[in-house]
Amino acid sequence: MALLTYNLPATWKELTESAEGKVAGQRDNGGTAWWTMMRLLLLNVMVLVTVGCGRPETELVDAACRGDAEKVRALVKRGDDVNARGKFGDTALHWVALHGDEETMVFLIAQGADIEIRNGHGSTPILKAVTPECVATLHKHGARVDAVDDCGRGLIDWASMISSPQTQQKALAIIEFALACGVDISREDYFRRTPLDYMVMRDNREMAAYLVSVGCRPGSRGDPPYPDWALQLVQKVKNGNTGEVSIGYRGPGVGGGVTHQVVIPANSR
User: Fold this and answer.
1) pTM (two decimals)
2) Alpha carbon of residue 62 to chain centroid
3) Which member of 89, 209, 234, 236 has the greatest number of CB atoms within 10 A?
4) Which residues pair with 11 in a beta bridge?
5) What is the DSSP letter of 4?
6) Domains in the chain, please, with CATH?
7) Would you call 84 helix, strand, or coil by DSSP?
């Protein structure tokens, strides 16, 4: 049976670039409130377009989404299409990668799951993987580590974005794996931003320091402007500093905040 397919009226990249182009003049004139409103409107349009063009979840995709590995196996053995898509174009393999279930991932691949299939945002399963084990397994079976989604964001971009105190070690391991495979850490997405730009925007100073230490550079867009702490971080490396660089900053904490230290390792490039 042929898979059901659907087409969005525009890709995420086209939608975003169109809106950003229309309000560029407003931002240049200091229209911060206007730009914020337009960004929120754009996000709502994206959600409505995607949901409106969606499809009902298949039983297999629903089980994978809920992390029910036992049911996933039972449905595939029953003969359900292993590459069936859900309402946002995700397959069971996308969801299993997102849950970090390597065992079920190997099972799905053995049953013919397409490792390069793209969802409605243009993401392949490897871009959804949240553990280095799942990334390595997909790569072992032929998945491209340099794949990018409809916004031009790849494995390093997404690993950086999912980084949190709870997931940081896994995110770093994924990035190290991508670098070992030759992925360009300073590759710009379709908005001319690198992973470092997004970490600066999120004020994730630990991850920003790590990215700089392994050679990531700011994108050519130059928007938004880097704050002082980020400029200091980048400048220290540009100046060829070969020792550890420690940058202090104030973060949230009891009693009005606590001082944190961001350290660039001595072997930074």
Assistant:
1) 0.70
2) 22
3) 209
4) none
5) P
6) 1-17+39-183 (1.25.40.20), 188-269 (no CATH)
7) coil
pLDDT in tens, 48-71: 454 444 455 799 999 999 999 999
Tokens matching residue 49? 């377009």
Structure tokens at 6: 């659907």
Question: Which of 252, 253, 208 has the alpha carbon at shortest distance from 228?
Answer: 208
Instruction: Supply 103's token pair.
Output: 């065992």
Q: Which residue has the tokens 């309402």?
A: 87
C-beta of residue 116 within 8 angstroms of C-beta of residue 96: no
Q: Structure tokens of 122?
A: 């243009």
Count CB-CB contacts under 10 A for residue 242. Answer: 10
Secondary element (H or E) of residue 10: none
Residues 111 and 77: their CA atoms lie apart, in Å, by 9
93-136, pLDDT tens digit by residue?
Answer: 999 999 999 999 999 999 999 999 999 999 999 999 999 999 99
Q: Reduced to 3 states, what is the DSSP secondary structure of residue 133?
A: helix
Q: Distances from the Cα of 245 to the Cαs of 142, 234, 248, 259, 260, in angstroms?
A: 39, 11, 10, 16, 13
Q: How far apart are CA 121 and CA 89, in angstroms?
A: 8
- The kind and range of the H/E element at 96 are helix 92-99
C-alpha distances out from residue 122 to 67, 73, 99, 116, Å? 22, 26, 19, 10
Q: Is 207 helix (H, G, I), strand (E, B) or coil?
A: helix
